[in-house]
Amino acid sequence: MRRIEDAIRETGGPVLAVVELVDIYRGEPIPVGSKSVAFRLIYQSPKRELREKEITSLRKRIIKAVERETGGKLRQ
C-alpha cells in the first residue's frame, strides 16, 4: 500500500490534504492473487477555491501515476 500512497501524495502535491486507505477487497470478481484498494482523497487549499476541472485533471494524473508506479489499474 505504501507505493500506492506515495504515488498519490507525490502527484497530488500541496492541494492534496488527506490520503486515507478506506478499503481492501479480495474475492470475486478480483483475480486470485490480486486485490482492490480504495483511498479517500481530500483536496484543499487555504489560499483559493479549487475548481472542478482542476481536481478532475489532478485525479487523472494521480491514476496514471499509480498505474505507472505499481502496475495496477483503475477498476471500473
Description:
There is one protein chain. This protein has 76 residues and is of the alpha+beta class. It is built from 2 helices and 2 strands. It has helices spanning 2-12, 52-70; strands spanning 16-25, 36-43. A two-stranded antiparallel ribbon has the order 1-2. Helix 1 (2-12) runs antiparallel to helix 2 (52-70). The two termini are 20 Å apart. The model has no long low-confidence stretch (mean pLDDT 94).
**Quaternary state of the chains:** single chain
Give the low-pLDDT segments. none
> How many helical stretches?
2
Strand composition percent: 15-25%
What distinguishing features does this structure have?
76 residues; two-stranded antiparallel sheet; alpha+beta; 2 strands
